[in-house]
């Protein structure tokens, strides 16, 4: 099966950068304002990568959506621009919110849906293209994070009646998220493809993986 001329959807999960509510595990190292500024720059960097992806997507028709929390649509549009569709993440844990976004995508005729957050600055346009390409034959594509979670997950319509199992009974924000997800995938005999392992920026020890461009644009003096 080829994804060309089919409908794909890329969903970005993020929060409005209000100090004290984002990147809270980095507050001891950066302060509340510094952590919020870093979150803002990471989100803007991720958006830039998705724009790069849209330039190289070939014949894959991509619908781009931002699932947000912490503000209203107007505040999000003022921050990231009016050209995106903004949808509130809604209630529930992370699994509930991700499953809801995928269900909505399938209901709107998407064939392949890829979800990313804004914590992984190593995501590139080519990696996003690869994730959709893998879904031409795989049921699931996943990008492992070095902390035991994942920075990307994608699902194809062929498992639309069973995919929600991937997000149930997961201990979110722990080092076991990836292992638990892969176990569920095996139990349901989903065909899964993995992307390279990358680093999320969640904890002070992760700051070493920040690109210099983000450090400079955030005015962070993180190594002194």
General description of the model:
- With 224 residues, the protein is α/β, with parallel strands linked by helices.
- The protein has a single domain, classed as Spore Coat Polysaccharide Biosynthesis Protein SpsA, Chain A.
- Helices cover 35% and strands 19% of the residues.
- The chain contains six helices and seven strands, in the order βαβαβαβαββαβα.
- It has a seven-stranded mixed β-sheet with strand order 3-2-1-4-6-5-7, with helices on both faces.
- β5 and β6 form a beta hairpin.
- The model has no long low-confidence stretch (mean pLDDT 94).
Q: How much helical structure, as a percent, in the residues? A: 25-40%
Question: Remind me, CATH topology?
Answer: Spore Coat Polysaccharide Biosynthesis Protein SpsA, Chain A
Q: Uncertain spans, ≥5 residues at pLDDT below 50?
A: none
Which architecture does the CATH hierarchy give at level 2? Alpha-Beta Complex
Q: Give the overall silhouette.
A: globular
Q: What value does the average pLDDT take?
A: 94
Query: Can you say what the CATH homologous superfamily is?
Result: Spore Coat Polysaccharide Biosynthesis Protein SpsA, Chain A
Strand content: 15-25%
